[in-house]
Amino acid sequence: MPEPRLRRILLKLSGEALMGSRQFGIDGDMLDYVAGEISNARELGTQIAVVVGGGNIYRGLAASKRGVDRVAGDYMGMLATVINAMALQDCLERNGIDTRVMTAFRMSAVAEPYIRRRAIRHLEKDRVIILAAGTGNPYFTTDTAAALRAMEIEAQVLLKATKVDGVYDSDPMVNPDAVKFDVISYPEVLERNLKVMDSTATALCMDNGIPIIVFDLNGKGNIRRVIEGEKIGTTVQAKEEV
């Protein structure tokens, strides 16, 4: 097998991505589709880590606006990410892919605790790792967890799978004249407040030189195409490279 263009990646999946056509929870067909896309990309020999959100089940920030204590709500949101991680693990393993769920705080009955060296070892053994429970701290999003874990496991790129095909200068769902960027710098993302990821996550990637590629998850084969070097979606990278 030839060496893949990207040796190790971190894939960020939102909880909403697992809803498919549903309004809440996990859509079984969408889960099968995501597992198939990861399986297809893994055939290239790239090591894959996944950070999954929990917004399809519970969102702590939204709950805090309804009177739920913010810290409690964030921990509840972290538990929701574990549910999604376990569902994705089950689907991947039914596809014959050796998978480990690792959580930011101990849940030893259902997952391993996240330990950086152990996570890297799993990747080196060709296992897909699913990193759940965010950073383990309230007030930090799963976007920030994805940026942090990407740095820790020395991923070459952070892939942000979304419902749109890249980063636009305004919301393409609202503005039909929105302009898509092929490449954009981290500072411009922050200055324009483009919401690629939250500002903490974007700043972490900028400070550590981790490119972010934003692409449409619903484009079949897109994860594999990114790994193979095809220019799809939008790349967020250092200003001098733009």
In short:
This protein has helices spanning 28-42, 60-64, 70-94, 116-124, 142-152, 186-192, 199-208, 222-228; strands at residues 8-13, 47-52, 99-103, 112-113, 128-132, 157-162, 167-168, 180-181, 183-185, 212-216, 234-237. It is an alpha/beta fold and 242 residues long.
Keywords:
242 residues; alpha/beta; Carbamate kinase; 9-stranded mixed β-sheet
Distance between the termini: 32 Å
Count of helices? 8
Q: Please give the CATH class.
A: Alpha Beta
Secondary-structure class:
alpha/beta
User: What is the count of structural domains?
Assistant: 1
Arithmetic mean pLDDT: 92
CATH homologous superfamily caption:
Acetylglutamate kinase-like
The SSE string, one letter per element, is EHEHHEEHEHEEEEHHEHE
Radius of gyration: 17 Å
Poorly predicted runs are none
What does this structure look like?
This protein is of the alpha/beta class. It has one domain: Acetylglutamate kinase-like (Carbamate kinase). α1 links the parallel β1 and β2. The model has no long low-confidence stretch (mean pLDDT 92).
Per-chain topology:
Elements: E1 8-13, H1 28-42, E2 47-52, H2 60-64, H3 70-94, E3 99-103, E4 112-113, H4 116-124, E5 128-132, H5 142-152, E6 157-162, E7 167-168, E8 180-181, E9 183-185, H6 186-192, H7 199-208, E10 212-216, H8 222-228, E11 234-237
Parallel strand pairs: 1-2, 1-6, 2-5, 3-4, 3-5, 6-10, 9-11
Antiparallel strand pairs: 7-8, 10-11
Helix pairs in contact: 1-3, 1-8, 5-7, 6-7
